Amino acid sequence: MPPSRVAVVTGANKGIGLAIVRQLALQYPKSTFNNGPFLIYLTARKKERGESALATLHQDEQLKAAKALARDGGLSEIQYHALDISQTHSIRVFADFLKDHHPQGIDFVINNAGIAMSGFDTTVVKETLQCNYYGTLEATQDFLPLLRPGGRLVNVSSMAGHLTKYAPALRARFLAAATVGEITALMEGFKAAVAAGTEKEQGWPSAAYAVSKAGVTGMTGVVAREERARGRGVLVNSCCPGYVKTDMTRGGGHKTVDEGAQTPVMLALEDLGGRTGEFWQHEKVMEW
């Protein structure tokens, strides 16, 4: 039987991404979206890591106890698929796969994939922006048209990108942006400022990860406004999972990965009252 609902989770082989997959399977049965079998694509760059994550979920005691997976009598099936959001070709290949295998469309996309590199120089900035901003942007642009009316797209961002860290002129540009191109121009401006060694003078924080996530939040808001104008009822939001104990935070977080997964999963499965283009944390809208 073909699935009634289909979800995609990027960067899902560990940490928050893996917990998002787990929580989708656990929470879907009580969701108003539940109208039958649920297929979740767990995506990751490396096949061995993705398949290892899949095997972990198949043996997960919480999933077994809830009988969440189809193999245990539940509704959800989880499949691995390769995806590296820093590579345009990888995104296009997966988008084509989704079109071919789900011609009626998919229902949920949670773009969680991202990197946090140590240090700060032009290389760190370039690689961080390529994955976190440009990769998330391309994934958003390629997967959004595949969503059925009423679907959800969630981009995992961060409070690290909060605009209080920026000079007033830059903050105003982020908030006033009406096109994705304007947000991209800000990212390119940051890259150029770092190359020239003038980012502090121009009012940028010397933090590649933070700026990349400001870009994600800003871009998501613009995309949401564009999508709302299409009248399909697709809700597009960004969120911060909180300070979660993961490899990315080098074990320094105070939330568990399952606690960190709650807001992204809520934005996919729960009634949001039509809220779109917002930045969320702790399951509520936050000022950005």
3D architecture notes:
This protein is of the alpha/beta class and 288 residues long. Helix content is 45%, strand content 16%. The chain contains nine helices and eight strands. The chain has helices at residues 15-27, 47-58, 61-66, 88-101, 122-143, 168-176, 180-196, 208-230, 257-269, and strands at residues 5-9, 38-44, 76-82, 106-111, 147-156, 235-240, 279-281, 284-285. Strands 3-2-1-4-5-6-7-8 form an eight-stranded mixed β-sheet, sandwiched between helices. Strand 6, helix 9 and strand 7 form a beta-alpha-beta unit. It is globular. The model has no long low-confidence stretch (mean pLDDT 95).
What value does the Rg take, in angstroms?
Answer: 18 Å
End-to-end Cα distance, whole Å, is 43 Å
Along the chain, the helix and strand elements come as: EHEHHEHEHEHHHEHEE
Q: What is the averaged pLDDT score?
A: 95
Beta-strand percent range: 15-25%
Query: Low-confidence segments, ≥5 residues, pLDDT <50?
Result: none
H/I helix tally: 9
Which range best describes the helical content: under 10%, 10-25%, 25-40%, 40-55%, 55-70% or over 70%?
40-55%
Largest sheet: 8 strands, mixed
Large-scale geometry: globular
Spatial ordering of strands, largest sheet: 3-2-1-4-5-6-7-8
Number of strands: 8
**SS-based structural class?**
alpha/beta
